[in-house]
């Protein structure tokens, strides 16, 4: 196969060549390949990354199909479809909606059946722009690259925008709280103006995983996460009691003593009590002994799970020797920045609202934890208590891998953004 620049007979956007700093390694690789005239490398890069096409606003909520927004040259009638890489996406707004796809999709798409598809313009108006008219034989090279690469697969890797992404300050700190999930999913950790996997995909994510289908639903979820209302109060009771004992007496808290303390507190809570309410002094009824015994037994089992997870986390480096998890607030606070960004990508919220939520998560986390490592262990424990059921399977293993990347990669926010 002979590679060369795309044909010059397409009357589309011009390609400026100012001095330029690429937002991410993707755009830098495209630019350098174009400058060298190495179109094989250009196509290979395109085939390995996410591409975003703008959707027709009137068809964007038709989830079963994809309706791209075509651009037409009024002089010639020629059509083209603009595709952008992540670093070239505009700030999300309600009027311009983008969906994630791949070069492989365009190489095999059926939407052009019966007519020649429009030309593909990559990153229009930028130094890494290129025109890919998919008309045989011009499209053979990029079609082969797309088919070889298949859909891009980003999992368990640290990715960041070097231009246009938060790298320092409160917003960067808040986004770094969500970095465990960003690394796990292979998403850019620091994109405040977030598109995720695209408008349709992000809406589907919120609907299927969070039961969020409206702006009000999204606002409620953000509030719940920031107020740590999603995590279990039972988990927090057990961890908080141990933390109180350790703070009052210092040193290691024996598991047996911890369980005895739980028993004592629950029995005391079950007795007749006199409390002051808005209606005055009220006497509570005693709780049945069977109910107290069942709750006590349940929390004793929970303590066993917690101690076994912590022992494994110490062995795997998530938790420092002699340290223990004081609270699982991190489980909610680490998801709150991602929920804020998902809402922006789904157009349920604005950039200002999403950024405000990210800042609030940052403030709350610094009140509850001392370091990135403490925060990470607490997040991992909350995730595993929720999903893993002591299988030490993917829910746990993903946290080990993401934790190590964030503590070892020189570009990690955990090494470049102070926790406090």
Write the layout of secondary structure elements.
Elements lengths: L24 H12 L2 H9 L3 E4 L16 E2 L6 E6 L13 E4 L1 H6 L10 E4 L7 E3 L7 H10 L19 H9 L1 H7 L13 H12 L4 H12 L6 H17 L5 H16 L3 E4 L2 E4 L5 H28 L12 H5 L2 H10 L5 H18 L3 H16 L6 H15 L4 H4 L4
Parallel strand pairs: 3-5
Antiparallel strand pairs: 1-3, 1-4, 2-3, 5-6, 7-8
Helix pairs in contact: 1-2, 2-4, 5-14, 6-16, 8-13, 10-11, 11-15, 13-14, 15-16
In short:
This protein is α+β, with helices and mostly antiparallel strands and 420 residues long. The chain contains 17 helices and 8 strands.
Features:
two-stranded antiparallel sheet, six-stranded mixed β-sheet, 3 domains, 420 residues, elongated, single chain, 49% helix, alpha+beta, 7% strand
Overview of this protein structure:
This protein is α+β, with helices and mostly antiparallel strands. The chain folds into three domains: 25-149, no CATH class; 169-231 and 329-416, no CATH class; 233-270 and 285-316. It is built from 17 helices and eight strands. The strands form two sheets. Strands 1, 2, 3, 4, 5 and 6 form a six-stranded mixed sheet that branches. Strands 7-8 form a two-stranded antiparallel sheet. A hairpin with a 7-residue loop joins strand 5 (119-122) and strand 6 (130-132). The chain starts with 24 loop residues before the first helix and ends with a helix. The model is unreliable at 6-12 (pLDDT under 50).
